[in-house]
Amino acid sequence: MDNKAKSNKEDILSLANSLRWDLGVNFHDTVIESIYNDASKIANKTVRIQGKRPAYSLDLKIDRIVTSPWLGFPIMFLLLALVFWITISGANVPSGLLASLLVDTLHPILKGFAASIGMPWWLDGVLIDGAYLAMAWVIAVMLPPMAIFFPLFTLLEDFGYLPRVAFNMDSLFRKVGAHGKQALTLSMGFGCNAAGVIAARVIDSPRERLIAIITNNFSLCNGRWPTQILIATIFIGGAVPAHLAGLVSAGAVVGIAVLGIGFSLLVSWGLSKSILRGEASAFSLELPPYRPPRILQTLYTSLIDRTIFVLWRAIVFAIPAGILIWLVANVNIGGISLAEHFVQGTAPFAAIFGLNGVILLAYIIAIPANEIVIPTILMLTVLTAGTTGVGEGAGVMFELDSIGDTENLLRAGGWTLLTAINLMLFSLLHNPCSTTIYTIYKETKSLKWTLVSTFLPIALGFIVCFFTTQLWMILMA
Length: 477
Hints:
The protein is mostly helical. Helices cover 74% and strands 1% of the residues.
């Protein structure tokens, strides 16, 4: 194709795109609706049904409820809340068992074996206290929620409900210049952002697929739920009467999740009106019939294709992170560890945003896996605050057995309600984990969009925490 022909083609496409925007976002829907209405009128005049009503009549009755303007959204949020509740509640026991096996049982055995063969202390620390513990925490925290969430999500998908979610959310995403199917990728992101990024393949438009990929990190993945729940329980629930603590804590966590959806819509609108303004793709969704889920296929798809695949990537990235954690906590310069140097040096900067140096370092170290944020924060707090009496040594990742011990440790490290609120916000608005970053690069084949996806959320995180802190200071003055 010569340059002149190529230029003419680009001019035609540009003109077509401009005209489509001028016609409005409802033009395509109007055309499709008129076609279906005409087809329905013709069918009603020419087709007569004798005997029992067609099977799809039940589907139509269900759709009148689940896609209703008044009931569609409440049902959708209730179902998703039920999935989250089952995931969080159901994962507590297996996560505890895995942590007990991998951390409380196998870790001392490995330490004893290393001592018996005369392994150097530094190699013992790097391999067992660093690499192994990071891998153990990722498996213990990440595997049970994913093993529950992904099968439930796949069951809804097989049943035929998820296309109804896309149908309900289409109007919201279309108003911000995104695609209705982005609701599916957003929902998948609540299980794992890397899986949500991969799920964006269902969007045909490259522009809108890219918007879905960039904004998927605003979904709270299962690696961030433990941080949200723990901090909300200690500081938000602790700020109200005991009989309201559970309800208020749960409401705070759900509020953060809903805030993430709001940021997804807001950023999608900003991208679609600026650097990703382009062709407004048409979205015709023919709702599939409801059908009974295929249990065995669901288990295989969710556990093998999704859970194990994502978990393996997280483990691969968590092992070097564990080594780094041990090194910064145990390598000293001038009698002070690298971690202490960083925490003390960044404390004034972190205070501007209502955070502290421990949080900043924990999120830098935990880029490979959000699951190790809390163990890293506790380790760094003991190390830098000189806190004793928690039953653990400095320089080793751990979690405490009781909420009370964790609260005492954090408060001894200078944590306040403002610190907790900003940590919950920063947990929502920070860079994706390395597994998700790698997946974004694999899906986009673009270093530029990978960097945008990485640094846009963290920029928003600092901005939101800054204004939250300033507003807090004004109100508390």
